[in-house]
Structure formats: structure tokens, C-alpha cells
Write a structure and sequence with these properties.
Elements (H helix, E strand, L loop, with lengths): L6 H9 L1 H8 L9 E4 L9 E3 L12 E5 L2 H6 L4 H11 L18 H14 L1 E3 L4 E3 L4
Antiparallel strand pairs: 1-2, 1-3, 4-5
Helix pairs in contact: 1-5
């Protein structure tokens, strides 16, 4: 099964420890979650979807949880909080982000994760990792 994520999003999600803790703490995933497993039986970096037979069972060889768009949106809180985060995060100028920051992203998941990390942690993606930015 082909996954819906960009290569950049895979790196961004893997580096977002504040987001990873949501599912990785207990290594228990829901049906439909996407994860990257590492084991002797899977190729490195392989993205897999948790099916109805594997959900709610600890997955010890899971290394990265890849939140889908709806899961990222839920992390803002309720719908009103999500809208406010986007209004202020994507405003002109974007609060706490350098000029043109959001234009470089290629998917809604990338952009939403970038807004989430900016709003919740004060970090921006520099292409290699999440770094603290000076808030404006």
C-alpha cells in the first residue's frame, strides 16, 4: 500500500518529538495509523498502516508515528483552536516564523505540522530538524 506522505514530511514527523510522544510512549496505535517500523523483516524506512488486527497491541518495532492531517488538527484542541492557530500561524507576517516560511511546504501535513510545532513549541523546521525560533 502506498502511503500519502511526502519524503520531507517523514523527516519532519520523525523529528517532532513533542508530537511523537502522543503515540510512541506506549507504542500502541489505532487502526489506520501509519508508522515506520524497523525490524529484520522490514526494509529500513518502510511505512506501514496499522490494520484492524494489529490495533491496540503494542508494536515494539515501531520507530516513528506518522500523524495524518485529521490527527494533527486534533492536536490543536477543538475546531475553534485549530482555526485560531492557522489564522495566527499563517498570518502575514506569520507570528514567530521567518518571511516565506510556509511557502516552502509541499503538503497539508507538512504545513499543519509546521503550524503545530510553531504554536505549541516555538520551533520551526530548518530542513534538517526543529529549532527554536525567536517569537515575534
Amino acid at each position: 500500500m502506498k502511503h500519502p506522505f511526502t519524503g520531507e514530511y517523514l523527516k519532519m514527523a520523525a523529528g517532532a518529538q513533542e508530537v511523537q510522544i502522543t503515540r510512541m510512549a506506549g507504542m500502541v496505535f489505532q487502526s489506520g495509523d501509519f508508522v515506520i517500523f524497523e525490524s529484520a523483516f522490514t526494509p529500513a524506512g518502510m511505512v506501514s498502516m496499522i490494520d484492524e488486527h494489529s490495533h491496540n497491541i503494542p508494536q515494539d518495532n515501531a520507530k516513528v508515528w506518522l500523524p495524518q492531517l485529521r490527527q494533527l488538527m486534533d492536536m490543536f484542541g477543538d475546531f475553534t483552536a485549530s482555526l485560531e492557530a492557522f489564522r495566527t500561524g499563517l498570518g502575514n507576517p506569520a507570528a514567530g516564523a521567518p518571511p516565506g516560511y510556509f511557502e516552502k511546504f509541499k503538503s497539508w501535513e507538512e504545513c499543519t505540522l509546521a503550524v503545530l510545532m510553531l504554536k505549541k513549541t516555538g520551533k520551526i523546521w530548518n530542513g534538517q530538524g526543529w529549532v527554536v525560533t525567536a517569537r515575534t
